[in-house]
UniProtKB/TrEMBL annotation:
Keywords of the record: Kinase, Serine/threonine-protein kinase, Transferase
SUPFAM superfamilies listed in its UniProt record: ATPase domain of HSP90 chaperone/DNA topoisomerase II/histidine kinase
Domain Histidine kinase/HSP90-like ATPase: 6-70
Organism domain of life: Bacteria
Protein name: Histidine kinase/HSP90-like ATPase domain-containing protein
UniProt KW Transferase keyword: yes
Molecular function, one GO term: protein serine/threonine kinase activity
Length: 79
């Protein structure tokens, strides 16, 4: 079963110059996965070009999860 957290964590590690944190928590409705990093730029969800070598992770993840949110924090963001 694909949970998506490897994609979120890899994106945070690859695209931000700072540390990141992973939280996986069981809830009554399923599983909540949160990745927090300390860079201010929010991720942009966009449909990749057919011939693009990357840029599909967040797009595919958004199609698989019930809800995908990005929240700015005082320092960084949580996805």
């Amino acid at each position: 079963m694909y949970l998506g957290w490897p994609e979120l964590l890899t994106n945070a590690w690859k695209h931000t110059p700072c540390d990141c944190e992973l939280l996986v928590r069981e809830t009554p409705d399923g599983v909540l996965v949160e990745v927090t990093d300390f860079a201010d730029a929010l991720p942009a969800l966009k449909e990749p070009a057919d011939d693009a070598e990357g840029g599909r992770g967040l797009y595919l993840l958004s199609a698989l999860v019930e809800e995908l949110e990005s929240q700015p924090l005082l320092r960084g963001k949580q996805v």
